[in-house]
């Protein structure tokens, strides 16, 4: 029953997140959903998360324009995240905070991918929920350092990114990423939060280095030689000067370690520290 509850809740919230992402700063959240191509209103049976996209084969029922793959991906990702949190052995009271944080993670990651900016309202709400959850988790602890450690975990995780933002004048790192790192520290604690930021840089390099190679002149010469036996892998316009959103890497790293914490899975390096 829990599996069904959290899975369906994740799909429903994911459907709402699609509306939130697409309408933020453009129009109010209220009002009937319509096709972005032809403007035709969408019936309720074409708004069922994931299912409707599959049934319609990713096209509008009326004008046959393509429906973005974002819709089922966001809905499915939110459902998976909700399941991971909902089925974990942590207290229900902490899940109450964790689920909206996970939803905000999805919205922030997708919006940052589109616009390379993180809305303040979302990241501040995420940070507030993370801080309250962190303080709630250690409240009443006999350890006199538990409460201060929980509070300062956020600034500690954000400190390296803030330093990069300050030194570069915002060229290397956006201030939105610094604000997001506050949530990471408050969710994970000082050691795991700092580790999550470090892992995000590794993840970013794993993704960015191949993109740089496949957009290089060397690869273009190799590609001409091996065509027509392979598909083109050259990402259009990606260079060392390209702006790469870092928020999704921070969120992926944070959520992965967060789930490990929830299920009591230890990371040897963090245990040593």
Structure description:
32% of the residues are buried. By secondary structure, the protein is an all-alpha fold. It has helices at residues 2-23, 51-55, 70-86, 92-115, 120-138, 146-168, 175-188, 190-214, 217-226, 247-262, 268-272. The chain has two domains: 1-87, no CATH class; 119-273, no CATH class. Helix content is 66%, strand content 0%. The longest helix is centred in the C-terminal third of the chain and has 25 residues, at 190-214. The radius of gyration is 21 Å and the shape is globular.
Task: Give the gist of this structure.
It contains eleven helices and no strands.
Q: What labels describe this entry?
A:
single chain, 273 residues, globular
